[in-house]
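ok so I'm stuck.
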Amino acid sequence: MRNRISLVYASVFHIGFIPGAPGTYASIATSLVFFLVFFFSGQIIPVLHLSAVCLISLTGVLASDDVSRQTGDQDPQFVVIDEVAGQLLTFLFLPVNPFNLILGTVLFRVFDMWKPFPIRKLEHLSGGVGIMADDLLAGVYGNLVLQFINHLIK
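replied:
not stuck anymore, here's the structure
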């Protein structure tokens, strides 16, 4: 049962199994859900947003570690919970608007694929930590660039 739950969670309810670009699909899905939460609640509470990032990151490490051990693959392509955590981190402490949602999604995907220093090095950490860490740092980079852009256009 635990293995099945880990697989469903790590693949973000099987989004990771959609052929093509599962990481991009997970990032887009995360951005859409994030927008819907904002739209229906009327706000994003920063402490809850940060708590969600931390909770998803911690549980993502555990689930992706389980899946990695199950498959014998150090970083299975269908594990996309790391994209969810990184994408949410990109939006942290920023206004929710179409500009930030679209540019934040693009920036996160660019940093996640490009892997500038030291993101690529984090991939070499073992197990779930290695799976999650590079995307979290890509989210930090995306957030910093988006914060800078928002500061410039104020």
